[in-house]
Amino acid sequence: MKKKRSWKKRIINTLITIVSLIALVYLIVFVGHNLLFKLPYSDKPTVKPIAKDGMIFGAASITQPKNFDEYIEVLSEQIKHYNEHLDDYWPDSSLENQYVIAQNNKDKTAVLISPKGEVKPLSQSEFKSYNIPTPLNLEGQWSDFSANNLSGAYLSIFVDNLTNYYTFQHYEHLGTYDQFLAYSHELFHSVTQEKWHFDDNNLTHSSRDERMEDIEARRIRMLLQQQLSQAFCAETKEETDAHILAALRTYQTYQEKCPEDFEKSVLFDRLEGTAFYYELVSSLYAGYPDQIKTKNDLYKGLRIILANDNPAYRTTGLTSEGYKIGGYAGLILDTIMIEDGEDPNSWKKEIEMDSKLTPLALLEKRYSDKKLPEQTPIPSEEDYNNWLAEYDKISPKPSRTAVRFDIAYSLLFK
Description:
alpha+beta; 5-stranded mixed beta sheet; two-stranded antiparallel sheet; 13 helices; 8% strand; globular
């Protein structure tokens, strides 16, 4: 009898130990996430609005939604205005009739938003019928979907971050919490770019390594971003051409000094650069419908935003730099082709068909008969580090420990 009791006692003690350990893990994660290692938070904007020539942009210029229902009102309007100008972003994009399923990350309520901005609450069974993959409860979660004769993007809305300006104030071209960008930018990847010509350099076979160890390449591409932004924002043709030629000299220097980095950059300057271009132009129409009604308004607004030199519109890392380098070069191509009486969609069609082309390569080709100036001094490592620090003030990076606790909290408490 003693052996039998001892056996049962060991099982009970083992179960108590297991339950206690599980409870301890939950307690540690809860306390660590909510008290000890919090993610950066600000319930007030730390970036002033940009106001010029009767236009005003930025999160500080907009009354921000504070709960899920208020945000759905904002998001549905953004989607409505975005779809009203669909033909102005990219030729034959195949992005018409794309819906949104938005879900509250806390209580799991969900709504369906039509391209016209119509909102329909979804019951739990209706939501399940769209076969949305079971999501990790992480900020930025999205997935494309196709079910019930509808297609579009699933977006997880983190309601706590609706009042955290650090998470969205750097997207001045949208001005609000940023999940609309997953609808425009990511569907451009998954729908429009699916039709493009590719060779072996396919995203599925390519590393998104930021190559941060190549400091020289990072400093050169930092300068390149600044020069392209200056070229787009220049007020005269002479200034525009001067900045373009300076940028092309830097691009040539980059190819000569950093050939391995350059080779790896082509894919992402092409794919992420064009997607960022698409994001910029579509978001301005969606986020500021009272101010942006025509292409003239669009380019004027983007020049005001980018000329403001917000450090958030610079970035570092091979892949991350591709967004800005490709996006800015695309805007420059648009404007100089319009000025020359050409169809600005022609460069977009060309880039779809040639897997080696980037917007900047097309710009280089266009100015191939021009003499390039002397190389502008490459920023020092000190300048580079100061540049990164300026970005962190606008959107502070959480510590690795805070990120780990955030992921663990998302997994355990979703």
